[in-house]
Amino acid sequence: MCAPGSFGSMVPTLRIWASEDGESHLEDVDLAFEVSDFLPPASPMHLTAQSPASGYFIARVPPGWHADWHPAPVRELAVYLTGEGEIEASDGTVRALRPGTILLVDDTTGKGHITRVTGTEEVLVVIVTLPDDPTRT
Asked: Which of 9, 50, 53, 123 could hold 83 in an S-S bridge, CB 3.0 to 4.6 Å?
């Protein structure tokens, strides 16, 4: 993360995706920022490229919640606000989901993943549904 008052050139994002053999994998990707005059006359800000979205919702997920193996019903971008959880890919990789985690969910086919709440607090997460992207692997 960047120091207060400074801007980094990338935002770390966790991506889960399915390979052709149906196994899911986790990888770190960085979304690039560009300087934009998005709100003139205010000074420029740094934005990532705009991507289409279908809708959004906010989920409150209770402590102890667990979803066994499942592919995502649609592509999603999830932004974790409170609580702690984890995601497990079918290749065995497990990653923490903490406040500030941005998760790009691209595994809409194959075995999918396991998600669970690991902490004692509920998880509050903003989920943005995304259209299919045939260029994703």
From this structure: 123
User: Cβ distance 78 to 100 under 8 Å?
Assistant: no
Separation CA 9–CA 16 (nearest Å): 22
Q: Which residues of 9-22 are buried (b: 16+ CB within 10 A; e: fewer)?
A: eeeebbbbbbeeee
Domains of the chain, start order: 14-29+51-130 (2.60.120.10)
Cβ count within 10 A of residue 136 = 14
Give the C-alpha separation, 92 to 130, whole Å. Answer: 26
Whole-structure pTM value: 0.85
The vertex-66 CA angle with 63 and 75, nearest 5°, equals 110
Residue type at 27 in one-letter notation: E
